[in-house]
Design a protein that fits this description.
The chain is of the alpha/beta class and 244 residues long. The chain has helices at residues 37-45, 70-76, 88-91, 98-108, 116-122, 138-150, 168-181, 195-201, 219-224, 229-236; strands at 3-10, 14-21, 26-30, 54-60, 63-64, 81-84, 156-160, 187-192, 204-209, 212-218. The protein starts with a strand and ends in an 8-residue tail after the last helix. It holds the Pfam family ABC_tran.
Length: 244
């Protein structure tokens, strides 16, 4: 499945960006806070705040998503495309046991899926199906969110800073799970400000600054020989600089 973004504009916050993500590709979208990364992801999923609207074109295998009805988008979310957010507590229902939340995508899309216990065990959480989100650690909650996102084997997975609030050990575990559990045919758009994470997760990278894409290329090219001054500054401030 191919995601095609053309001339995407969101107020003055995302300024006419274009890119394509092919089947099985792993692409990083990097930049500092406020660069427009998350708004780009929310535009793809049709989840922009009410006060914002997107223009341009966002197509998933040729189907236009901008301007699509909520009913149409709901059929795609959690089925053909899914998202892992930075803060799992905003993505989980505090009053619902995590086992029921993990199997919710099956009920929403009328599919018969795997048991909650199996889905949770696949992300390293056996025996927690009857727990509530507040009873789990931050890393465990993020694993639950990942299990939900991957339940229907989406063709497109968007991760928006999914490990920012986690310690280094748990971060490594979550990244490993994403690599292991995402099917080879699924595409990944990984949003982060952490260049070390991009180096681990992505084959190609897009660099955003003030709502625009200022550099793109293979991860190796961009992180070893950045052309734009902004990318050079990001690299100089990262842990990767000393390893070059």
């Amino acid at each position: 499945m191919t995601l095609t973004v053309e001339n995407l504009q969101v107020a003055d916050l995302v300024r006419g960006i274009s890119f394509e993500l092919g089947a099985g590709e792993r692409v990083g979208l990097i930049g500092e806070s406020g660069s427009g990364k998350s708004l780009t992801a929310l535009s793809v999923l049709g989840l922009l705040p009410e006060e914002l609207s997107a223009t341009g074109s966002v197509r998933l295998d040729g189907r236009e998503l901008l301007g699509a009805s909520e009913k149409e988008l709901s059929r795609l979310r959690g089925n053909e495309m899914a998202m892992v957010f930075q803060e799992p507590m905003t993505a989980l229902n505090p009053a619902m046991r995590v086992g029921r939340q993990v199997t919710e995508p099956f009920r929403v899309h009328g599919r018969r899926g795997r048991p909650a216990e199996e889905l949770l065990a696949a992300v390293g959480l056996p025996g927690v199906a009857r727990a509530y989100p507040h009873q789990l650690s931050g890393g465990q909650r993020q694993r639950v969110v990942l299990a939900i996102a991957l339940a229907n084997d989406p063709a497109l997975l968007i991760c928006d800073e999914p490990t920012t609030a986690l310690d280094v050990t748990v971060q490594a575990q979550i990244l490993s799970l994403i690599r292991e559990r995402l099917s080879a045919e699924s595409s990944l758009l990984f949003i982060t400000h952490d260049l070390a994470v991009v180096a681990q997760m992505c084959d190609r990278v897009l660099v955003m600054l003030d709502g625009s894409i200022v550099e793109h290329g293979s991860t190796r090219e961009v992180l070893t020989a950045p052309k734009h001054a902004y990318t050079q500054r990001l690299l100089a401030a990262s842990d990767l600089e000393g390893a070059r």
